[in-house]
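#struct-queue
[09:14] JT: dropping the first one here, sequence first, then the structure tokens:
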Amino acid sequence: MRLNRRFRAQRAGNTVTLTQFSALSTLKKCGPMTPGELAAREVVQPPSMTRVIAALEEAGYVSRKPHPTDGRQSIVALTESGLGLVLADISAREAWLDKRLAELTEAERRTLAQAAEIIEKIAGQPD
């Protein structure tokens, strides 16, 4: 948890909330989608996601366009500014992590790599 807090502290700009940034990251990873799909991926209620999208749209980080086949829906997509924000954040966190990893010994980096494999194995197991 401390490492996660350290990563959050490295966020570039901090111009959006963690919830908003998570939605932006999901759009970067998965591409444009409906608000309902985004809410499901983020595991939040649709009204909450509606507020998140509205704030991100107002800030210029996402855009909405009509759904091509369902007039009741819209499609939410990252704008250039939104993509830039996500990429800057990733870059800031990676720079911080690179610096910390460079401070470790080769043996410590090998141990960390082995631990990462074990954690990945545990995380990939079904409940």
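[09:21] JT: and here's the second one, same format:
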Amino acid sequence: MNKSIKIYIGVLVFVLALILITDRNEKKPIDWRPTFSVHDKIPYGLYIFDKEIGPLLKNQKIERIANVTPYEYLDSKYDADTLVKEYKIKGTFLSISELDNIDEQSVTELFYFVSHGNNAFLSMRRFPESLMDSLKIATKYTFHEPKNNLVWMANKNVSSKKYIFQQSVEDYFFKIDTANTTVLGYQGNSKKEKHINFIKVPYKNGYFYLHTQPAAFTNFHLLKKDHYQYAENVMSYLPKGAIFWYTKLQKDESISSSRMRFIFSQPALKWAWYLSLIGIVIFIVFNTKRKQRIVPILRPLSNLTVDFTKTIGNLYYQEGDHRNLIDKKIIYFLEKIRNEYLIDTTRLDDNFIKKLHHKTGKNETDIQELVFLINEHRNSYHGNLEEDLIRINNAIEKILH
């Protein structure tokens, strides 16, 4: 192990140790996200409610709907036979969520389910628009001092006690169909403000129970003083019978199947993982640097054969033996054509011209001119040999370059 690697490892160990020392006395931050998930033990999860719903709704069958939408579940329980046209199940659909977590198709199916003599209990801050329009209701929210918020039941025979809910944002019903709607609960503050937060709305042969304080069923409130009593009072309005609880996580989340999920669920392990990856990347970057001197560029040896050919050519030219030089250039040209393009050079005719044109892609006119000059020279044409040499050389250069 060389010195630089030891330095990198030492720096990484020092950084990790510094982080561990710094965070040693730090308290784990509280996750205040309103997940409303039955798997979460954080303040606004439903872990405790999931464990206590059995004793809370005694002698009632509770079925959890987790892997399908309400539409998919309820539609599968509907007997479409022309003589029956009835649901195979009877009871109350239950959903507790921060915001609207039911799609439009499921809302339509939910109305159909309730119309057949069933019920639906929805506790959420925002209800589906189509549901509010059909039931002629509307919600609004307001801000208060957290310490002044109160919730209580409308029927004093159920409970006359008021519970303090320390929340700054309060949602409530500001518009209801007073002719058909029954008010079951209120919320307000010490300034005598009073808003409706729990109602019962009839729909054909069944009822909708709508509640705007889903936080009442979370771990935070069920473990705080006597707040569990308020949750019991609200749930006491659910009719006796089977409960079909929609427990799907908010925003279509699901439990990760990744092998790394435990590491990423723990902040300390997650940061240790990230730092390890960063350290590996730094190590790779620094060790990919070249560790030897630059290799000098060696120029290739000159082609002595080419130099020799040029020398012989110059010699023939200086001696004035132009005819011999023309013959050798023609021989060199035809030899190159045979070796590189595998064309027979016995007869320099139209067939040869076409083959050479197709294989080289050179201008056919230039090839015709060269063949004409070669044939003319071979036919013992006695013109100006120096001019012929220049013309043949230029014609060959056009084909070979």
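[09:30] RK: nice, looked through the second one.
[09:31] RK: Residues 251-255 have pLDDT under 50 and may be disordered.
[09:31] JT: good to know. DSSP finds 14 helices and 13 strands in the chain.
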